[in-house]
Amino acid sequence: MSMRIGIIGCGGIGRTHLAAWIDAGFTPVALCDAVPGAAEALVGTTGATAYTDVAQMLADAQLDIVSICTPPTSHCALTIQALEAKLHVLVEKPMAPTVADCNAMIAAADRANRLLSVGFCHRYQPQIVALKEALHDGMIGTPMMFRNRFAGVMPDVHQRWFSDPALAGGGVIMDTCVHSVDLFRFFFGDVRRVQASATTRVTDLGPRVARRRQRHHYPHQPRWGVGRHRGELADCSRRLGCDGVWYDWGTHDELQHHAARTSERRRCRNYPPHR
User: Which residue in 13, 12, 48, 16 sits closest to 32, CA to CA?
Assistant: First the structure.
């Protein structure tokens, strides 16, 4: 099967899509980024044509499908533009900042009779596929709790678009939690009830949320880490998670402080060592 593929957005995730398409046996023929030189830098040996204007790429490249790898606040407009050009669309997560935007994208796909897919890549990880099969076959009994932690090192998050609400549309909950919510639905179906107990404090990067896990069936621990060293951050993350306290982001010193508090609570309450 032959497909003509384009990629809109040639930053980090755009490079990931380019490599994934090539690994799957399809070499994109058009790359577009509003930043001059960004698309050209990715052309390499692919033979793709570089663009800085989306409309020109859609008009000239005779594409079948596009990957949209731009910041989330641009997803809705770019997706609808591509669908109206009669292309199939793979858009990165989060789908869009608002439900209204998501519904508009779905409606555009219906009108164009084209496929619209969101990049929830974790569904296709071999471990996730195996766990889904084990759940389906009843190999592990009846699940009573699904606990999911997404955490990673992003030392320069303050300088990147992730921390700019005008581009990201939200913080780590929107950017990272969407994967966790998708996995929950993939494993168990749609959510029947949502319940939360939380307090918030404003930081330079937005709200920081602290929550104690009590009788929740779905405790989730998302965070962008800005620790100086990967090992230190992993240790903080491990200790922070032991009794259900989580923070969506924080400086290295904040993580160390909250890890120390968590360690003290565990000692006072006779928590077993976290493994």
Answer: 48
CA distances from 184 to 167, 176, 177, 245 (A): 27, 13, 11, 20
- CA 235 to CA 238: how far, in whole Å? 5
Residues 6+ apart with CB under 8 A from 24: none
Q: CA dist 33 to 36, 39, 98, 264, Å?
A: 7, 6, 24, 49
Which run of H or E residues covers position 79?
Answer: helix 75-84
Which amino acid type is present at position 249? W
Say if residue 222 is preceded by a cis peptide, omega within 30 of 0. Answer: no
Picking from 181, 161, 269, the residue whose alpha carbon sits closest to that of residue 224 is 161
User: Two tokens at 129?
Assistant: 């596929």
Give the model confidence (pLDDT) of 160-175 as tens digits.
776 677 777 777 777 7
Compute how many other C-beta atoms are within 10 angstroms of the C-beta atom of residue 145: 10
Q: Residue 75's closest CA among 117, 127, 41?
A: 117
Q: How far apart are CA 175 and CA 21, in angstroms?
A: 23
Give strand ranges (E) for 158-204: 199-203
Question: What pLDDT was estimated at residue 7?
Answer: 98
Buried b or exposed e, range 210-248, using 16+ CB within 10 angstroms: ebebeebebbbbbbbbbbeeeebbeebbebbbbeebbbb
Residue 205 vs residues 110, 170, 193, 250: alpha-carbon distances, Å: 37, 10, 29, 9
Tens-digit pLDDT profile for residues 28-44: 999 999 999 999 999 98
Whole-number average pLDDT of the chain: 77
Confidence of residue 109 (pLDDT cuts 50, 70, 90): very high
